[in-house]
Design goal:
95 residues, alpha+beta
Length: 95
């Protein structure tokens, strides 16, 4: 797979911002078929940084209800990428 096809988007939440500042970890939504080795290579290629550790997890979609109609959000895969000391990825710096 191509690097840009593996990584769909960064996950920007309050928790991920704390992880980024405190532990130098970045969270991405990734392709469900991607493995840790492919994710590490893709992040290093796209952002020109060195990756220390990649952790992945399957996120189950929540069941939502609106009146009598129930539905389910989609399942997705998440990767938490820990960068080597001194490395940075800037998404919204200065915005």
């Amino acid at each position: 797979m191509i690097s840009y096809d593996l990584i769909k988007r960064p996950v920007i939440t309050e928790k991920t911002n704390i992880q980024k500042e405190s532990y130098n970890q970045i969270t991405f939504e990734i392709d469900p078929k991607a493995n840790r080795v492919e994710i590490k290579k893709a992040v290093e290629d796209i952002f020109n940084v060195k990756v220390a550790v990649v952790r992945t997890m399957q996120v189950k979609g929540k069941t939502k209800q609106r009146g009598r109609i129930t539905g389910k959000r989609r399942d997705w895969k998440k990767a938490i990428v820990k960068l080597m000391p001194g490395e940075r990825i800037d998404f919204f710096e200065g915005a």
